[in-house]
Amino acid sequence: MKKIDLFCSAGMSTSMLANKMQEVADAHGIQVKVEAFSSTAIDFQVEHDTPDCILLGPQVRFSFDDVNAKYGAKIPVGVIESADYGNLNGERVLKMAISLIKRGSTA
Amino acid sequence: MNVAQGLEKKLMPMAELVSKNKYLLTMRDSFAMLMPILIIGSMFTLVGNLPIPAWVDFLKSTTIQGKSLFSLLAIPSACTVSLMAIFLSFEIGYNFADQLGLEDRVSAGMVSLVSWFILMPQVTEFLPQGASQPFLVESIPLAWTGARGVFVAIIVGFLSVSIFGFAIKKNWVIRMPEGVPTSVSLAFSALVPMALTFAAVWAISVLFALTPWGDAFTCIYSMLQIPLTMLGGTVWALAIAYVIQGIFWFFGINGSNITSPIFTPILTALTLENQAAFAAGTALPNIINREFDAFFALFGGGGSTLSLLIVIFLFCNSRRAKDIAKISIVPGIFGINEPVMYGLPIVLNPIMAIPLIFTPVVNVLIAWSAMSTGLVPLCNGIMLPGSTPPLISGFLLCGWQGALLQLVLILIDMAIYLPFIKALDMQFLKEEKGAETEHVV
Q1: Residue B277: phi, psi to the nearest 5?
Q2: Using CA atoms, how far apart are residues B357 and B231, in angstroms rounded to an integer?
Q3: Which residues in A36-67 are b (16+ Cβ under 10 Å) and which e?
Q4: Could you tell me the CA-to-CA distances from B116 to A91, B68, B109 in Å, in that order?
């Protein structure tokens, strides 16, 4: 079971996207757990839950360099495309997450 | 788009600076922790002061063991809202410790709380009837534990935990031998840094006694809190904040995350002043406050996009706009609007920039005018959860006039958005027609 963690400013709008991604994954029998959190919870999540992939919402994209420098070597980090985010396109974001997990590192 | 790119390059580091600022993050997290307590406390005030005279008469005339229901209902509010600075004081220390990377966050919270009490003048003036000289009664004055103690709690929290953390980082601690339980060794390791902090804060309190203010609370309240709340409580300050928020949103950065850590302490203090007046039945002092900001400036999130969604449902024909409105409407009612922001998109869309930035400003100006001319009563200071839907929030805060004002504002916002979204809709329709003909070919 791979864990994909989504982060935005409050974890509210990303939770809608996370649900969509989970639906797509479940429909295709892909073994992942997608969850959404507030961007302040990144350190806590990495420490306590070790996600396999960190995705940042476009509204907190300015923190990418920071997060990537901190965790990118171990956990791949990505920024969700604005259009996919707005349209709640779970399929495309899930594909992005899977390809990031396959890459293994973004630093 | 060159100007836009240049501006984006300037705004991104600013957003990063704010979102990483230790002090602002501490304030944001602390107020977030405080909010449930304040909301619950003010619910009791609301129940005790519903705008129905028969209800209030019933509460006042029904007594249990000689105490009226009205006065009993005031207890939860007195223990939450009127003591908020005490809780805030602990939370500032607790959260600031996290920002400084201190392990012992609870001790840091206690350091902040005790330091705040050390600086507080612990007397209340009491003038008995017929006496000419007031008695000084030793006590914790409730005047300082509510909204008026908020700024002191913030400043003292930062100061005391900075000293505490400095001592810990310098390793001025008593180390227990290994094998001693963690809780015991933590208590001992906090001993020296705590003692140093309290001594320093105590010295500051003695120095304040030599000033014309007499104590730190009076000084910070009159030199900082009053001027800042007067400045932050003006309609122009709020209007400018919304222009700034709108510009950030245009670049896809959550604008209220940038401005609210700065405005929240000020607006909350203003709201609580109104609540105290409301509970006491006196005139409400402040037009601009947290509830004004939360429930009259924006409907459906940044840019006041709820009206935009309604306009799309009523007047737009393109699939693209309609699909986005469909997924956005339910979260939009509760003030979450990222789908429409990024999906339509409004972000980086030059057509939508003007309504995005100026609709909230128009709301602020109209709502302020309506309240300052007396057409609509001021917000009663009751704190509502941020996701309370419009009309309900307006009614609870200002009576039926408040709900009507919200309705009028939503209609005005719809009129502002209409020409812009129609232009975008035409563009979408053209694209959709083009795609169809391509299919046919």
Answers
A1: -65, -40
A2: 22
A3: bbbbbebeebbeeeebbbbbbbbbbbbbbeeb
A4: 52, 34, 11
Q: If DSSP states are collapsed to H, E and C, what string results for A82-107?
A: HHHHHCCCHHHHHHHHHHHHHHCCCC
In this structure, are residues B355 and B412 in contact, taking their beta carbons and an 8 Å threshold?
no
Q: How far off is chain A from B252, nearest CA to CA, in Å? A: 5
Euclidean distance between CA atoms B373 and B421, whole angstroms: 33
Beta-bridged to residue B67, according to DSSP, are: B64
User: Model confidence over A81-95: pLDDT tens digits?
Assistant: 988 998 889 999 999
Local structure of residue B213 (DSSP, 8 states): T
On whether any CB of chain B is under 8 Å from the CB of A16, the answer is yes
pLDDT in tens, B33-75: 998 999 999 899 888 888 778 898 999 999 999 899 999 999 9
Give A-chain residues touching B336 at CB under 8 angstroms.
Answer: 12-13
Judged by CB atoms closer than 8 Å, whether chains meet at B338 and A62 is answered as no
Q: What is the pTM of this model?
A: 0.82
Question: DSSP letter string over B335-359?
Answer: T--HHHHHHTT-TT-HHHHHHHHHH
Report the phi/psi class of residue B281: left, alpha or beta, with left for phi > 0 and alpha for psi in -120 to 50. left
**A53 bridge partner residues:** A4
Question: What is the per-residue pLDDT across B157-209, written as a single tens digit (0 to 9) for each?
Answer: 999 999 999 999 999 988 888 888 877 887 788 899 999 999 999 999 999 99
The owner of tokens 């609709």 is B359
| Nearest Cα residue to B419 out of B308, B318, B333, B263 | B308
Q: What is the pLDDT of residues B380-429, one digit of tens each?
A: 999 998 888 999 999 999 999 999 999 999 999 999 999 999 999 999 99
Contact between B390 and B410 (Cβ < 8 Å)? yes
Supply φ then ψ for residue B138, to 5 degrees: -65, 120
Residue of A6, A8, A60, A96 with catalytic role? A8
- Which ipTM value was assigned to this complex? 0.74
CA distances in angstroms from B25 to A68, B248, B268, B334, listed in the order given: 21, 18, 17, 24
Spell out the residues 6+ positions from residue A28 whose beta carbon is closer than 8 angstroms to its own: none
Contact, B28 vs B95, CB < 8 A?
no
Query: What angle in degrees, to the nearest 10, is found between the helix axes of B22-48 and B69-80?
Result: 180
Rounded Cα distance between A54 and B212, Å, is 55
CA distance B264 to B299: 18
User: Cβ A87–B324 below 8 Å, yes or no?
Assistant: yes
Q: Which residue has the higher pLDDT, B311 or B135?
A: B311
Pair B406, B291: CB distance under 8 Å: no
Backbone φ and ψ of A38, nearest 5°: -75, 150
* Nearest-by-Cβ selection for B19 from A57, A63, A86: A63
